[in-house]
Amino acid sequence: MKAKIVGTGSAVPKYCMKNNDFTKFIDTNDQWIVTRTGIRERRISREETTSTLAFEAAKKALESAKCKAEEIDLILVATCSPDDFFPSTACQVQAELGAKNAVAFDLSAACAGFLFALNTAYAYINSGVYRKALIIGADNMTRFLNWNDRGSCVLFGDGAGAVVLEASETGIFHFVQHADGGQGRVLKCFVKYEDSILKKQKEGNSYLEMEGQEVFKFAVKTVPICIEELLKKAGMQKEEIKYYLLHQANSRILLSVAKKLKEKEEKFPMNMEKYGNTSAASIPILLDEMNQEGKLRKGDILVLAGFGAGLTWGSTLLEW
Length: 320
Ligand code: COA
Known about the structure:
Blueprint: E1 2-11, E2 16-18, H1 30-37, E3 41-43, H2 50-65, E4 74-78, H3 89-97, E5 103-107, H4 113-126, E6 132-140, H5 150-153, E7 158-168, E8 173-179, E9 187-189, E10 208-210, H6 212-234, E11 243-246, H7 251-260, H8 272-275, H9 282-292, E12 301-308, E13 312-319
Coenzyme A binds at residues 28, 32-33, 36-37, 111, 150-151, 154-155, 210, 212-213, 215-216, 249-250, 277, 308.
């Protein structure tokens, strides 16, 4: 059995923080942030949470798919910033939606999380286990930012995006996925537990910490290789690809990937200008925006690519 995306949705917090707002507390400026990252503003959660954003995005995806919550067999939430350790964000979304026939669980692969969740759902559908899946990428990364670290705090925003993936007789779907835990130190956010009876408190901060240049080099090196690997696996030529929807970390990363693939920049849509890096939410938010704007036509071949902490990276080729 094949599978196709039949609906999309997204949700972002109301509060909008512009680049100039950072100048009140760190030494930075709008021009530096725009030229180095492509980001102009980002949404920051105040009353919103990871699960409320995930729920909003999921509700819209179900509406767009004209699908009732009870029809869903599987809910997967990709997040590395859940509100709680348990119940999972997926179970919280399931309860809010009333998706009582679904199994629900979270999956953590940072900025590659949505793709890994999409591929996992596809594998379930492809093997005949489930028929309809709701896949959500949701993160509130701004909770973990060190607002004194100008090299990282300007990059991130909060949000959620969702798709409904349904079993289909036709449809092209291929993916490749990778992880390299040995390089994990370059982008990390350690949890500092309180003293337990047996263990001492962990050293370090509970902030996101990043070696920016190392992460940059990792992305521009691995993403083009990963996409070439995917195209080979799918037996497809670059000319057949309508759009490359990449994780919206940084416009310079995307332009470098386009250049390395010898592809036109126009095939790499971007929206990090408005949202910053929303981690697992960035690809489904972009997909939803393009869908809402009518930019995606039936039969279009899309390549999605995610990369981030872990380190993790992967790409997926699918027929719209
Ligand atoms: N405003 C002004 N100056 C800043 C700044 C900011 N927000 N952040 C860093 N700088 C400064 C640095 O302190 C440094 O100053 P110095 O030369 O006086 O030491 C200078 O700018 C250059 O820093 P550098 O780290 O070399 O800049 P860069 O060109 O590598 O850009 C990033 C920094 C973070 C934008 C870039 O490395 C990057 O995008 N990396 C990938 C990050 C990412 O995408 N992470 C998520 C992946 S999922």
